[in-house]
């Protein structure tokens, strides 16, 4: 079992930055990948970024060049640095962990992740 707790959300003006943290506890060694997803009101949960073995990463197109996923292994924490935020980035952001390795294109799929945090709200005002 892996427990995930997100923090760092808040209200920011367009163009600003936020850094989200995901603290992992439990059997973190069993996780092959960590991901960030987001869900806006009335919309499906969508992929934002993922990081897996070999320090490989993947981002959804709309955040490339603005968001960076990284890991602090000493603290068992996954970070999402978000710069140049836009109103359309407003959503609840969720951290997720996947037990099994997979093909690179599968890391964007919600169904491939086994553990989820409770989410943290990010609101970007125009």
Describe the protein in words:
This protein is mostly beta strands and 126 residues long. The chain has strands spanning 2-7, 10-13, 18-26, 33-39, 46-52, 56-59, 67-72, 77-82, 91-98, 115-116, 120-125. The strands form two sheets. Strands 2, 4, 5, 6, 9, 10 and 11 form a seven-stranded mixed β-sheet that branches. The chain is globular and about 40 Å long.
Shape: globular
Helical residues, percent: under 10%
Structural class: mainly beta
Topology as a string of helices (H) and strands (E): EEEEEEEEEEE
Number of helices: 0
Low-confidence stretches: none
Main sheet summary: 7 strands, mixed
Q: What does the average pLDDT come to? A: 94
Rg from Cα: 13 Å
Q: β content, as a range?
A: over 45%
The tally of beta strands, per DSSP, is 11
Distance between the termini: 40 Å
